[in-house]
Specification:
Elements (H helix, E strand, L loop, with lengths): L3 H18 L3 H5 L2 H12 L7 H26 L15 H32 L1
Helix pairs in contact: 1-3, 1-4, 3-4, 3-5, 4-5
């Protein structure tokens, strides 16, 4: 897989986090799922060999990059009153990295297991 495309995706998601929140520690905390995705991208997803790992890669993109990006943009543009209808809507930025990272680790872990199993079976 091309190395520059995941880097551009990660940098653009990080840029949106900083544009929505400004430069502060909440915006830095939003980088957690992006960093997790990029680390797995560099180690596990650098060469995708079968369909199961490709599916895990797609789920990791959706959970770790797309979900937080859409949540931040919907809050910023106040889609369906996501920013103004609730007095605690800003708590989204406290829990969003946790809600994205914990489930996002699942497809990454499955892909790592499948890749390890594939290495073991090819070496035998």
């Amino acid at each position: 897989m091309n190395k520059i495309i995941p880097l551009i995706c990660c940098l653009s998601c990080a840029a949106v986090a900083f544009l929505v929140l400004g430069i502060n520690y909440f915006a830095a905390f939003q980088l957690l799922p992006i960093i997790v995705f990029y680390l797995f991208q560099r180690s596990i997803f650098k060469n995708i060999s079968n369909v199961a790992i490709r599916l895990c890669y797609i789920f990791a993109i959706l959970i770790l990059l797309a979900f937080p990006l859409m949540a931040q943009l919907s809050w910023h543009f106040d889609i369906n009153g996501s920013a103004t209808r609730s007095s605690t809507s800003g708590l989204l930025f406290v829990f969003l990295p946790i809600y994205a990272t914990l489930p996002g680790l699942l497809p990454c872990t499955i892909a790592a297991y499948l890749k390890q199993r594939q290495k073991r079976s090819s070496s035998n």
